[in-house]
Specification:
There is one protein chain. The chain is an alpha+beta fold and 339 residues long. The chain has two domains: 2-116 and 214-338, no CATH class; 118-206, PDZ domain (Pdz3 Domain, Roll), CATH 2.30.42.10. 52% of the residues lie in helices and 24% in strands. It contains nine helices and ten strands. The chain has helices at residues 2-28, 86-115, 132-136, 155-163, 210-236, 247-260, 262-280, 288-301, 307-338, and strands spanning 33-49, 52-67, 117-127, 143-147, 150-151, 168-175, 178-185, 187-189, 194-196, 199-206. The strands form four sheets. The chain has a four-stranded antiparallel β-sheet. A two-stranded antiparallel sheet has the order 1-2. A hairpin with a 2-residue loop joins strand 4 and strand 5. Helix 1 (2-28) runs antiparallel to helix 2 (86-115), helix 1 packs across helix 6 and helix 2 packs across helix 5. The two termini are 22 Å apart.
């Protein structure tokens, strides 16, 4: 039940935040917003405050903001979306994906700061019996500071130094303030497919100050964005796999993260938010990216595309996108049954 709630909350927050971007920017420019809706299908709840109807619908796989004038016949009402300046319409559409990136930064910052990230240290929590480290004399509480002549400052460096050696290594540790060095041979672990010595690290929760957390959140989001576009370019060039995860696959990821701890769920939600924003700027009909593309074309031509034609393009795009979702979902379900 907890994982089901986690899936619904994560999906709901990501979509709600995305749509709030469109909503707030449109409202700030004085546009009339007819509806703010979370989900699709029949409504579970709806209420009209002012000129906007707010609705919660039965299928929690999306949402939308319905701006006056985006559908149907165009009028002369200056508050309708098509009658606003081009730059305002562009910013309204861009606000959704942009807010997802902002949310990613916020969630990463919360994870790095107040929540804290569990981090493996070079202090030994356990030396496994009958493994090289234990037999050589390594014990819990020892802090590894050097492998051979290489200084070690974190667990990643330690693991890399061990796996890069296939024979004998000298491990230097601090024990009760004194330096000790132990020689041992690494052992190949067939299950892990790497060389090990049989040690487990002490894990501590690392917190950073708020400014550092925001800085790290921005860096993490920028790096994720760069990796995302890099994977997209490799796919377009035919050098990368076509590997999409649908709602079922994402729900499985959220479920696993929820079971492994709140911080993992928080970090995954940040990554999903960034991916949602980046996916939405692709120029695929029905996504925000296609609307941005049409607005750029309008700016070049100094003439908007016929509304009926644009709506038809978005409808066809929606059908294709739903077909793609069904195919990806089938693949995700098939993967679950064969896992």
């Amino acid at each position: 039940m907890t994982t089901v709630i986690a899936v619904i909350v994560v999906f709901g927050v990501l979509v709600a935040w995305h749509e709030l971007g469109h909503f707030f920017v449109a409202k700030s420019f004085g546009m009339r917003v007819n509806e703010y809706s979370l989900g699709f299908g029949p409504s579970l709840f709806k209420h009209k405050w002012g000129e906007t109807q707010y609705a919660l619908r039965i299928i929690p796989l999306g949402g939308y903001v319905r701006l006056a004038g985006m559908e149907g016949d165009k009028t002369e009402d200056p508050r309708e979306f098509p009658n606003r300046p081009l730059w305002q319409r562009f910013l309204v559409v861009l606000a959704g994906p942009f807010m997802n990136l902002v949310l990613a930064v916020i969630l990463y910052a919360v994870a790095f700061g107040p929540v804290g990230i569990p981090t493996a240290t070079t202090t030994i929590q356990q030396a496994l019996p009958h493994y090289p480290a234990y037999e050589a004399g390594i014990r819990p509480g020892d802090k590894i500071v050097k492998i051979d002549h290489t200084r070690i400052t974190n667990w990643e460096e330690l693991a890399s130094a061990i796996t890069s050696h296939q024979k004998h290594i000298d491990v230097s540790v601090i024990r009760h303030g004194r330096l000790h060095t132990y020689g041992m041979k690494t052992r190949y672990d067939k299950a892990l497919h790497r060389y090990v010595v049989g040690i487990k690290p002490t894990v501590v929760t690392v917190h950073v100050n708020p400014l550092q957390a925001i800085h790290d959140g921005v860096i993490q989001t920028v790096q994720l964005t760069g990796s995302w576009f890099g994977a997209l370019f490799r796919l377009v060039e035919g050098r990368g796999p076509f590997d999409l995860t649908g709602p079922v696959g994402i729900a499985e990821l959220v479920s696993s993260a929820a079971q492994s701890g709140f911080v993992n769920l928080l970090v995954l939600s940040a990554a999903l938010s960034a991916n949602l924003g980046l996916f939405n700027i692709l120029p695929i009909p029905v996504l925000d990216g296609s609307r941005l593309f049409f607005l750029i074309v309008e700016g070049i031509r100094h003439k908007a595309m016929d509304a009926d034609r644009e709506n038809m393009i978005h409808f066809v795009g929606f059908v294709i996108l739903m077909a793609l979702v069904i195919v990806v979902t089938f693949h995700d379900v098939e993967h679950l049954f064969h896992a």
